[in-house]
Amino acid sequence: MKMILFSLPGNEELTALLAKKMDAEIGEATLRKFPDGESYTRILSHVKDKCVVLVCTLHEPDEKLLPLYFLSHTAKSLGAMCTCLVAPYLAYMRQDKIFNEGEGITSGFFGNLISGFADSLTTVDPHLHRINSLGQVYHIPNTVIHAADDISRWIKSNVENPVLIGPDSESEQWVSEVAKNAGAPFTVLQKVRHGDRDVEVSVPDVDKYKNATPVLVDDIISTARTMIETVSHLKTAGMKPPICIGIHAVFSDNAYQNLLDSGVEKIVTCNTIPHPSNTIDLSDVITKEVKELMQHT
């Protein structure tokens, strides 16, 4: 089946990488707004009997969703065999329960919406906190890509004498996996409660790691509060300035600059959301998984 990739605005760089590795063409489309604010969609490339791959990372999703919806349906109306969504970052996954009376579980609503116009979904490390699998939310063939191996390889090649730091006990499983593949030790910050308002955070065996380069790893860096707090604890413990690694560079408001100003050595993210910190390229694994998923679509 022939593939043609369409990039939603802001996804051009990743789309170019994927098209080259898939040996696929990049489609042309016009996406703009009418003077009254309504969306206009026109596909300029031939899509009949082809699999249309829509590349659109879904941070700040509300403005992107309608053009994506129109593009998918327009492609099918022109004879496309299928429309496959590649959304490296998947929005609304945190809203997976009712926290307050009167709310809806919007992760499910969003999943139903996308499942209604895309034939498959490929994403990277979605937030599956209270959800066992993506298939509970998205009722279409889907693939979840894990960035841990690529992060481990980057650490192994670029960081001398690394030690991975987990901000709390919940992070231990994730941090230990990356550390194992990187061939590096890891430790987790420990909280010692002296009273209701007196909590001390310590680095176990800090003397053992005084000459190591601390590496903080998290899936989403949004407000960066957790990382900034962890950087402060490491500084208090007398450790070197850390390297901060995140999969998804959400960076709300001034979070990126605030994290830089906290005293880190470097901030590194994967290219799931376009950002100046993008250093770890996931296009190889995305290409592989999209090809495999399409065989079953």
Q: Can you give me a brief rundown of this structure?
A:
The protein has 297 residues and is α/β, with parallel strands linked by helices. 30% of the residues lie in helices and 26% in strands.
Protein topology:
Blueprint lengths: L2 E5 L4 H11 L2 E2 L2 E5 L5 E5 L7 E5 L6 H16 L4 E5 L19 H10 L4 E5 L17 E4 L2 H11 L3 E5 L5 H11 L3 E3 L1 E4 L5 E4 L10 E9 L3 H12 L6 E7 L5 H7 L4 E5 L7 E3 L2 H12 L3
Parallel strand pairs: 1-2, 1-5, 5-6, 6-7, 7-8, 9-10, 9-13, 13-14, 14-15, 15-16
Antiparallel strand pairs: 3-4, 11-12
Helix pairs in contact: 1-8, 4-5
Structural account:
- This protein is α/β, with parallel strands linked by helices.
- It has 2 domains: 3-146 and 282-294, Rossmann fold (3-Layer(aba) Sandwich), CATH 3.40.50.2020; 148-280, Rossmann fold (3-Layer(aba) Sandwich).
- Helices cover 30% and strands 26% of the residues.
- The chain contains 8 helices and 16 strands.
- Strands 2-1-5-6-7-8 form a 6-stranded parallel sheet, sandwiched between helices.
- Helix 1 packs across helix 8 (283-294).
- The longest helix has 16 residues, at 62-77.
- The relative contact order is 0.13.
- The model has no long low-confidence stretch (mean pLDDT 92).
